[in-house]
Amino acid sequence: MKYMDTRKRVSCGLSVFRKIKGLFVTGWKRYKSLYQKSPWYKKIVQIILTFILLFIFYLFLVDINFLWLFGKSPGLASINHPQQNIASEIYSADSKLIGKYFRENRTPVKYEEISPIIINTLISTEDERFYKHFGVDIQGVFAAVKDMTHGKARGASTITQQLVKNMFKVRSQYSTGLLGYIPGVKLLIMKSKEWITAIKIEMFYTKQEILTMYFNTVDFGSNAYGIKTACKTYFNTTPKDITYEQAATLIGLLKATTTYNPRVNPKNSLKRRNVVLDNLQAHKIITKSQCDSLKQLPIRLHYNLESNYNGSALYFREAVAESLKEWCKDNDIDLYSDGLKIYTTIDTRMQAYAEEAVNKQMRIVQRNFDNHWGKINPWQDRNHREIPDFIENLARKTSAYKILEEKFPNDPDSVAFYLNKPHKLKVFDYRLGRKDTTFSTMDSIRYMERFMHCGFVAIEPQTGEVKAWVGDIDFDSWKYDKVLSKRQPGSTFKLFVYSEGFNKGLSPCDERIDQYIEWDVLEDGKPAKWIPHNANGIYTGDMMTLKAAFARSINTIAVQIAREAGIPNIIKTAHAMGIKTPLNETPAVSLGASDVSLLELVNAYGTVINDGMVHDPVMVTRIEDKNGKIIYRHKQEQKQALPYETAFLMTQMLMAGLTEPMGTSQALWGYDLFRYNTDFGGKTGTSSNHSDAWFVGVTPNLVGGCWVGGEHRSIHFRTGALGQGSRTALPVFGYFMEKVLADDSLSKYRARFPNPKQTISRSYQCRTPYPPIEPDSMDMETDSIAVSTDRYINKDSLVSEK
Asked: Residue 590 pLDDT more than 80?
């Protein structure tokens, strides 16, 4: 049956072919007879008309890609809805453009935003009959052919044809079919497609729309696509405010974006600009005197090459891009070419204050760190011994090492020789920002590894909106974001220990003894004892309130609460409050032995200030497509993570860090913060070995957290006050809040903690007297996470001295 159907189809096809062949033969005979009987002048007209008809027929065959001979051409759908790469723009909460995401840096403009100056300059230089032709300039084509016969090559492309090349990329994105493999034919086919598409564009668009599309697509070099980006890149101006000499420079470089680039080849650019000015005079757009005076002017550039890393809040913008990956994938959106407008939560004023605070404090930290170690290498183990081959192991992870290893296989001496060979490079420097120097690869690693690092983030607790985000001390040198990196939080984790204790019915005024504790654990599958100790290694034996213990960051009492509350319950509460990272279910987690990120920690502290309600950090509020249609809007979702009473009591605990004697947050009193009718609280934290220093500060409407430490955990201060959270991380929050509170436009962040919204059943207004702690131990809240049977000091101090 199928065989019979195939035979019928073949038979039908042959029949159609015979009929077409018959018509063609009959028509050719009539045409030949008519031609032979006509006088000579009619023969010429007949030949011309025949050529035109054949050419039109040829264009039709090209357009439909007859028998796949010519390759596909842009269709009506793509012409009616042209696609082009448009940069996505990122805006701050205070409506400032803070950066872009792009592959081609292009921002479209409307016709009304383009000055007649540059429109006239373009037309007089590139297509003087633009308003008269229909996409193909026949007069220009014949003139170009005439010049070619005299050995003078010139172009004949109209603005519309150039638009076709720019927008539809006929020469690169469309094939030329089977005939394209014939030498010389390929160019004819491509040119034919340009003509066809140009005529279609003229049919569907007005001349104004064509000019607008052209100005929005054309490449001006230096990664500046479109007139708006070009004006900003070369002259720091706009298409509306451009001058004749600037317009002539930009239009002049279109002939060859490298040869006539005013920055790369200023002499060529000047000559070409003056040619364009002569064209303006020839077309009577400017007078001769204007032209002469303009030609005397030098090219005054305000060159600023934009990249994805221009603007502010660079670490934040990278985090936004990462957070939008799945959304873009699910919605078939290209972040770097779809022209989105992304409205974020960041506040440019607060961001500037945060960056200034980080820079100010980290200069001090770096100076102290350098003085602390002197010429001794700071990469050391717990016993303060330099780690052997530390730099060598880091070098093996670099691309330079891998290239050398491929070039010199089984030849480590040659690899080592080139790794230690000096060469010119730029490195980070606090005074200069970036400085030129001559270092070997090994020396550059040693130099860069001696820098201390910092992360800072500020979040509104009620909304979860991120208002400031500083990922490190210098984005160009260190792309790894310290707001998102995960390190041991030290005593800042005690927030979750005490929160779960209050969930179990404890109160701030309950008392515990600062005493020696052993906790049975398994180490490598064998029974062992974990012995937490206080920072100064002393157990006072004093009875003190939980409020005082939290304020002083007494480890032994925090561990007692953890034992009573249960480690699994504490971990569950931490996750409920906003910690996303999995936590190790060991006793040491109560003192911050399990890594978390600064972002999730600060957000979790916000849960306490937000009456126990938790939500994810918010970075983007809405997204618009290139037409201004809202395609994403953030919906506030939050849930109760802590009972209100627990959240209220923990707020009181955080405030106690400033009000209790020897509270670890009392250094905040040294900042100009307390004349704005604003309440504060906070918690410091320092991990074992002084590798990580933390501080999270809270106010009623803003929570800010800071981390300070080395790039690697083995780079740290030795034991001593210099590495404590109160000395390194807390000042960043202090400097930041000084500027925020002093700014009248940010007065919403001046506030007092409210009175209880409901009856609080447990006592929290208590100040239990107890002997003062030695000044040397102030702020020493380092947490031991070691498993040992003898790591405690002064066990005899369990006996009170009273």
From this structure: yes
- Helix (H, G, I), strand (E, B), or coil: what is residue 759? coil
Report helix angle 494-503 to 644-659, nearest 10: 130
CB-count exposure of residue 26 (10 Å: 0-12, 13-18, 19+): exposed
Q: 343 forms bridges with which residues in the sheet?
A: 91, 622
CB-based contact 663:653 (threshold 8 Å): no
Asked if residues 455 and 468 have their Cβ atoms less than 8 Å apart, the reply is no
Q: How far is CA 258 from the centre of its chain?
A: 29
Full DSSP string of 620-686: EEEEE-TTS-EEEE-----EE-S-HHHHHHHHHHHHHHHHSTT-TTGGGGGSS-TTSS---EEEEEE
H or E element in which residue 166 lies? helix 159-168
* Residue 524 to residues 85, 520, 530, Cα–Cα distance (Å): 57, 13, 13
- Scan for tokens 């009273």, then name that residue: 802
Q: How many helices (H) and strands (E) does the chain have?
A: 28, 20
Determine the distance from the C-alpha atom of residue 75 to the mean position of all C-alpha atoms in its chain, rounded to a whole number. Answer: 36
Give how far the C-alpha of residue 789 lies from the chain's centroid of Cα atoms, to the nearest Å: 48
Gap between the Cα atoms of 284 and 653, Å rounded: 79
Residue 748, classed as helix, strand or coil, is: helix
Rg of the chain (C-alpha set): 37
Q: Identify the CA nearest to 571 among candidates 642, 500, 650.
A: 500
- Look up tokens 């010519």; give the residue: 70
Six-digit token string for 13: 């096809």
Token digits of residue 276: 């364009």
Amino acid at 758: Q
Distance (Å, whole) CA 134 – CA 127: 12
Residue 40 sits at the vertex; the CA angle it makes with 39 and 41, to the nearest 5 degrees, is 95
For helices 116-126 and 244-253, angle between their N-to-C axes, nearest 10 degrees: 40
pLDDT digits (tens, 9 = 90+) for 237-250: 999 999 999 999 99
Q: Do the Cβ atoms of 198 and 161 come closer than 8 Å? A: yes
- Give SS3 for 447: helix
Cβ atoms of residues 536 and 757 within 8 Å: no
| Nearest-angstrom CA–CA distance, 374 and 39 | 105
pLDDT tens column, 545-578 = 999 999 999 999 999 999 999 999 999 999 999 9
